[in-house]
């Protein structure tokens, strides 16, 4: 039996990441998928994207960039997705699919996707559809428990530390608010694995109605734990004992660099359609980023015993930023900017300071001061 995957989130990132990997695995003969993509909120009638996922010819993903010093420019028709659904419009169908067929759940709901609304997150026999993603997931898990109680693996791809742990606790809280029994909670604890994962790929442009342009580099790191297994075998998917090194490198080098550029872009009122490559063509800004990495970021990694890995990753990151084939818009990076400053800069400063970093990190501290953790920007 094929391993049905339900993917919550229609983002172009997942189109060129998890769904892309599953497509390549299927092409190699692995029995994995297909994928049902679910739009979490809003009616499908307002989104041509949902319907487009049902096209049997698939959707295009264009991979452009450099790999091992060689240019890469290829187009793939991803056919691992067989259907798009709206959680609001197709709740009963989704419930049945989730309860009976799903083997893996993937999610990518953005920086604030685990937010809940207790007053609007009720579910029960009346068929009410809860508002938040965690409450929807809790409701669907209750349906699965009642229908079959089969085990399930959930692979959250939201970029936050301990994403699986955080999502599991939020689902439990939503379930308790809806009066679920202790038997359900016991099943959830014993038979539903919430993996902790880290994803990394720059997906710079959408192709309408679905599809994307992405770089060759890609990583999906999944932490080993009871009940956790790989959804498929792929060179970009890693099962590891420890996610922290992967997470620190990505968050505090690649993502931190992006956020530094977004802050610069906003403060200087630069062109609305400016890309990462274009802003780094400004010699002054490129020099500031190089100095930031050398004088503020690398000392923090060195203090934590990761100096060599960080230096190598900075070099890789700058190559990715300067990819001549990608137009990665700063405006996209700047979305949810205060939350990103908290996770990418505040968290780095705390980590580096605790390890005794040799740098005072004045530039990063100045940015952090504009976005205090209490949310009141100065």
Outline of the structure:
The chain is an alpha/beta fold and 378 residues long. The protein contains 14 helices and 13 strands. It is globular, with a radius of gyration of 21 Å.
Would you write up a description of this structure?
By secondary structure, this protein is of the alpha/beta class. It folds into two domains: 4-242, Rossmann fold (3-Layer(aba) Sandwich); 245-370, N-(1-d-carboxylethyl)-l-norvaline Dehydrogenase, domain 2, CATH 1.10.1040. Helices cover 44% and strands 18% of the residues. It contains 14 helices and 13 strands. The protein has helices at 12-15, 18-27, 48-52, 91-100, 133-147, 163-177, 182-191, 244-267, 276-280, 283-303, 307-321, 330-333, 337-354, 362-370, and strands at residues 4-8, 35-39, 59-67, 70-78, 81-86, 102-107, 152-156, 192-194, 197-200, 203-206, 212-214, 219-223, 237-240. A six-stranded parallel β-sheet has the order 5-2-1-6-7-8. Strands 4-3-11-10 form a four-stranded mixed β-sheet. It has a three-stranded mixed β-sheet with strand order 9-12-13, with helices on one face. β6, α5 (133-147) and β7 (152-156) form a beta-alpha-beta unit. α5 crosses α6. The mean pLDDT is 94.
CATH topology of the largest domain: Rossmann fold
Shape: globular
Trace the largest sheet across and list its strands: 5-2-1-6-7-8
What ranges have pLDDT less than 50 throughout 5 or more consecutive residues?
none
């Amino acid at each position: 039996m094929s391993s049905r995957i339900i993917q919550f989130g229609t983002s172009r990132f997942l189109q060129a990441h998890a769904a892309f990997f599953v497509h390549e695995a299927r092409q190699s003969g692995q029995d994995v998928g297909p994928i049902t993509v679910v739009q979490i909120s809003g009616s499908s009638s307002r989104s041509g994207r949902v319907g487009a996922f049902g096209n049997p010819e698939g959707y295009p993903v264009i991979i452009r960039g450099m790999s091992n010093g060689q240019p890469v420019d290829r187009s793939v028709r991803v056919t691992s997705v067989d259907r798009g659904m709206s959680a609001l419009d197709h709740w009963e169908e989704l419930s049945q699919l989730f309860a009976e067929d799903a083997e893996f759940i993937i999610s990518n709901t953005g920086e604030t996707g685990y937010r809940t609304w207790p007053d609007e997150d009720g579910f029960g026999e009346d068929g009410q559809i809860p508002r938040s993603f965690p409450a929807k997931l809790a409701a669907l898990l209750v349906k699965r428990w009642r229908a079959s109680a089969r085990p399930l693996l959930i692979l959250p791809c939201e970029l936050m530390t301990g994403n699986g742990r955080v999502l599991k606790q939020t689902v439990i809280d939503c379930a308790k608010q809806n009066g679920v029994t202790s038997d359900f909670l016991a099943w959830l604890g014993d038979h539903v694995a919430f993996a902790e994962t880290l994803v990394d790929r720059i997906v710079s442009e959408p192709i309408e109605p679905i599809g994307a342009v992405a770089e060759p580099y890609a990583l999906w790191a999944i932490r080993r734990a009871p009940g956790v297994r790989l959804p498929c075998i792929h060179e970009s998917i890693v099962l590891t004992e420890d996610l922290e090194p992967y997470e620190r490198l990505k968050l505090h080098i690649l993502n931190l660099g992006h956020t530094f550029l977004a802050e610069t872009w906003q403060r200087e009122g630069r062109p609305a359609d400016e890309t990462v490559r274009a802003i780094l063509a400004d010699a002054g800004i490129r020099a500031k980023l190089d100095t930031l990495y050398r004088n503020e970021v690398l000392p923090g990694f060195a203090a934590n015993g990761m100096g060599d890995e960080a230096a190598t990753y900075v070099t890789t990151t700058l190559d990715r930023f300067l990819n001549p084939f990608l137009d990665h818009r700063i405006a996209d990076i700047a979305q949810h900017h205060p939350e990103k400053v908290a996770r990418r800069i505040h968290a780095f400063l705390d980590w580096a300071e605790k390890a005794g970093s040799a740098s005072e990190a004045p530039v990063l501290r100045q940015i952090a001061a504009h976005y205090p953790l209490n949310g009141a920007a100065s």
